[in-house]
Design a protein that fits this description.
There is one protein chain. With 417 residues, this protein is mainly alpha-helical. It has a single domain, classed as Growth Hormone, Chain: A. It is 77% helix and 1% strand. It is built from 16 helices and two strands. It has helices at 18-22, 26-43, 49-55, 60-88, 90-108, 114-142, 146-173, 179-198, 213-217, 221-248, 252-281, 283-303, 306-333, 339-367, 372-390, 392-399; strands at 2-4, 414-416. The chain has a two-stranded antiparallel ribbon with strand order 1-2. The protein is globular and about 55 Å long.
Length: 417
């Protein structure tokens, strides 16, 4: 991402404000819309975790495995997504992923035990991995305005999904913890129909992706550094997402409202605030600073009273939104590997932390007290910042990090790839 002060460049994501970003082909909107629902599935269970534990007579640690199985399978599946999509095409891969989510989300709603529910969430994770990783590549390839616009659209879908997931979970889960799973299956079925109707088959890559290509891509120092930093950050992220609902111990409606506000901040800061901060201070300074602030936020969350915990949970969405945008840009632009391959390698590493945090946070509480999981989450955020600092030369050089921009002649900052 290179900075310029020569005025708007043709096709830039910001050259016509929101209008430039919103003028997209129907195929992009269909894919982005389905992506919203896919990301809703991540936070969908947040407000109903206590209800699921009560309904299935399970402990907090057992219910947290819903996240662990989901993201563990998602991480491993990242090695398969490029292999599959380079052989059957992006459109068929998206439809396969959506079909798996519809089936396993529906089955999750019929679960008679927490073991069944954890298993069905694993199948859901496989479908989501096939869909989400391919959706990013499809949006980047089909979006008008270049990769900058595509990344913003993808992050918009992520933010909207993260905001609406807890809200949907609360609204449906207040009647029964099973209904949010059925609701997700229904919405993903609509996404399946939209992709079928509006997305044409994407050109297959000239070279088929092997199962080891994402691992080979991690041999690039810059991409490996970004993935390692994101690994530590994701542990913090998913401690907030998976463990905090038990700390807040609120009704589904109240918990859903908290995480809806959290998701709104995530969306606003990822799409609007992060690009402006990057333009002014540079991506790595923004990322490092945001990670340090996130560490402070989760520490206060763990040691504060209930009201403080609610405020800090919502506020963490701002730091998470900034981090998500910067990490995505680094992962897609830092190496010379094809974007789907680089994204798969990066996600393979970071999703393991998303699987680990929901498992270890309740265990750490059992071994100590309720504050210590947030101390650990604060430390991992600082470790992520430390990786950015120590590896800043490789990250800056490889990503062609722009110098901070404080002013331009016409007041416009231009991003070009």
């Amino acid at each position: 991402m290179i900075n310029s002060t020569e005025g708007p460049a043709e096709g830039d994501a910001f050259d016509t404000g929101a209008g430039g970003l919103l003028r997209q082909p129907r195929a992009v909107w269909a894919t982005a819309g389905a992506s919203v629902v896919a990301f809703m599935g991540i936070g969908l269970v947040d407000p109903i975790l206590p209800s699921i534990a009560q309904g299935l007579d399970a402990t907090a640690g057992q219910v947290s495995l819903l996240f662990t199985s989901y993201f563990l399978i998602t991480a491993v599946a990242m090695l398969v997504t490029g292999f599959v999509s380079s052989r059957i095409g992006g459109r068929k891969t998206l439809l396969l992923g959506l079909a798996l989510v519809v089936v396993f989300a529906g089955l999750a709603g019929t679960s008679g035990s927490v073991g069944e529910l954890v298993g069905f969430r694993a199948g859901w994770g496989l479908g989501n991995a096939l869909f989400v990783s391919t959706a990013l590549a499809v949006i980047v390839g089909a979006a008008a305005g270049g990769s900058a616009a595509a990344i913003l659209l993808y992050e918009s879908a992520l933010g909207l999904g993260m905001a609406c997931g807890p809200l949907l979970g609360a609204l449906l889960g207040n009647a029964s913890w099973r209904y949010p799973f059925f609701g997700t299956a229904f919405l993903m079925a609509i996404g399946f129909l939209c992709i079928t109707a509006f997305l044409k088959e994407q050109p297959k890559p000239a070279r088929k992706t092997s199962l080891l290509d994402p691992l080979r891509a991690l041999g690039h120092g810059g991409l490996a550094s970004a993935a390692t930093s994101a690994f530590f950050y994701n542990y913090t992220f998913f401690t907030v997402l998976a463990f905090t609902p038990f700390v807040l111990n609120m009704t589904p409606y109240k918990s859903g409202a908290v995480f809806f506000c959290w998701g709104v901040l995530l969306a606003v800061f990822s799409v609007i605030v992060a690009p402006r901060m990057q333009a002014r201070f540079g991506s790595l300074k923004v990322l490092g600073g945001s990670l340090v602030l996130l560490a402070a936020d989760v520490l206060v969350l763990g040691y504060g009273d209930h009201t403080t915990a609610v405020v800090c949970t919502i506020l963490s969405g701002a730091f998470i939104g900034v981090n998500n945008t910067v990490y995505t840009e680094l992962a897609l632009g830092i190496s010379d590997a094809p974007r789907p391959v680089a994204s798969a390698g990066y996600n393979f590493v970071r999703w393991f932390a998303a699987a680990a945090a929901p498992y270890f946070a309740p265990k750490i509480e059992e071994w100590s007290n309720i504050r210590v999981p947030f101390v650990v989450a604060g430390i991992t955020a600082l470790l992520g910042a430390a990786v950015v600092f120590v590896r800043r030369d490789a990250l800056t050089h490889e990503a062609e990090e722009p110098e901070p921009v404080h002013a331009t002649e016409d007041g416009v900052t231009v991003f070009a790839n």
